[in-house]
Amino acid sequence: MSELAAHAGEAHHEALQHHFTSLEQQRAASSLGMWVFIAQEVLFFGGLFATYTVYRHAYPEAFSAGSHHLSWKIGFFNTLVLIGSSLTMALGVYSAAIGKKNRVVGFILATILLGSVFLGVKYFEYGEKIRPCLGDGPHTGCLVPGARFDAASLHVKGADLGHVQIYFSLYFAMTGLHALHMIIGVPILLTIAYFAWRGRYGPEYHTPVEIVGLYWHFVDIVWIFLFPLLYLIGAH
Amino acid sequence: MSSEHVVSWKVYLAVFLALVALTVITVEVTGHDFGPFNLVVALAVAVTKATLVVLYFMHARYSERLTHVVIASSVAFLVILVFLLLTDYLSRPWSLVAVG
């Protein structure tokens, strides 16, 4: 009876689902589920990182040559943008925990804005490498692996140009999968921002804000590894 | 133990500044040639940054023990994946380079 009384306040919370004893138990279950998903994601990306390790070990010169063709300044800028978006996300969850509804919406929108800046820069980076491959032209500067890959414009010595294509295959696969995660994250963030604006979250219940935060921070961590591994190979 | 822990916004700001500083360090190191140590430093900095994000932004420091088990097992399985793959590739009598 006393236990029932203890949960009486929570039991009336509209977010509490009937198969959970308390909001706290529900929050812990949701959080654990997200962490298990992230553990799966670690291994999902892990396959690409393992492939990268094997090929970089086999063809160090080719990887260095390919890396020198990326702009570390752009990668550096995007790293700062993404770290900034992680900060705004963390502050969004914090604002929900202390019950500042408008700030939750503001911080999530800031996260979306920074995420969009990152994707815009990525679009520009991809375009630079893909555009020369289109049409009938001489394909100068085409960096998409395949028949039109322009080895001559790379100015590399000592590296097998076929192996530079392996580097660029991994570049597109790894940054592409990472960008896909961000593209999926943006509409989820928009949905959470909408519900936050409608006043669904408060200090006692804001699990969805927390969960989408975990996802966004994980995507940030993937980039933390991608930046040095792809952009900063060899002395620049 | 399981009750949610609210951390001050100052902690988040400090972690953000540390992440920016570490990013600058990793770029600075690339400007100098330390041979194989460039990769070691790059990975050490990346692991430090990732740990900061997991502990503070993702609240792992304040979360349940079961969450810690999940995090530790994901890292353990990633190590198994990469390590066992390398025991294969690094111990072959022929190399990827020769096969082309």
What does this structure look like?
- The complex is a heterodimer of chains A (236) and B (100).
- Chain A has 236 residues and is an all-alpha fold.
- In chain A, 73% of the residues lie in helices and 0% in strands.
- Chain A has seven helices and no strands.
- The N and C termini of chain A lie far apart (70 Å).
- Chain B has 100 residues and is mainly alpha-helical.
- Chain B folds into two domains: 1-63; 65-100.
- Chain B is flat.
- At the A-B interface, helix 2, helix 4 and helix 7 of A face helix 1, helix 2 and helix 3 of B.
How many domains in all of chain B? 2
DSSP strand (E) fraction of chain A?
Answer: under 5%
Mean pLDDT of chain B: 89
Mean pLDDT of chain A: 91
Q: How would you name the CATH homologous superfamily of the domain at 27-56 and 78-130 and 168-228 in chain A?
A: Cytochrome c oxidase, subunit III, four-helix bundle
The whole-angstrom Rg of chain A is 22 Å
What structural category characterises the helix and strand content of chain A? mainly alpha
The helix fraction of chain B, in percent, is: over 70%
Q: Calculate the terminal CA-CA distance of chain A, rounded to whole Å.
A: 70 Å
Largest interface: A-B, 52 and 53 residues
Anisotropy-based shape of chain B = flat
Strand content of chain B: under 5%
Report the radius of gyration of chain B as a whole number of Å: 19 Å
Outline the low-pLDDT stretches of chain A: none
Taking the alpha carbons of the first and last residues of chain B, their distance comes to: 55 Å
